[in-house]
Here is the input.
Amino acid sequence: MRESILTIPINEIFEPREGCPICRMRDMLEQRTTEYIMGAAMMEPDVRIETNRLGFCKTHFDQMLKQKNRLSLALMLQTRLETLKKDVYSKPSFFESKQKRVKSLSKSNSTCFVCSKVDWAMERLLVTVFDMYKNSSEFRSLFKEQEFICAPHCEMLCTAAPDALDRRTALDFRDDCFALARKQIELLYKDVSHFCSMFDYRNNGENADWGNSRDSVERSVEFLTSRKAK
Here is the structure.
């Protein structure tokens, strides 16, 4: 399969063969989106309308706070809070039902500007991933060589596969996803079990062999949630 403007970014994401490639894809999109929103785009009217309407989730608030640009974030928070104050938390009119206000509150707590942009881009990138898996034996081999697929992204890929691939290819794709996830969970179980065993007094001492277990808890959290433990 010849490289193109669509396939090059996918190959760059999968080439490292380290960790979960879908996590790398998401992390790259999140970084680009948060840098975008914290830069000059913050003052673009169309963007501010969307950030006022959608707000941000805890994960992406944390990522924006790490960029140290507190004024940009404060300006977005100012107008986001103003929007919520007017549309959700203002005193209801006489004819407004309480249920409508609760629905507005629920909606305001479940949307995120960055999530919406990342999800939109992920959906389009994964179209190319499926197309490459179907048509490129080289990419299929590269896919199988990944270190692992995390649990949430294994579910996401396997759920999307039947709509993106023919039946036979979708089954092969699911088998490859589960094989990558299975390999990792078996390794994690071994390392976490070893970590736990090291707290037995019989395994203590100057020459105690922790092996690869010291960061097994953090690696397990990453596998189970798709997010690195802090």
About this structure: Residues 148-230 form one domain. The chain has two domains: 16-124, 148-230. The longest helix spans residues 167-197. Residues 96 and 102 are 11 Å apart (CA to CA).
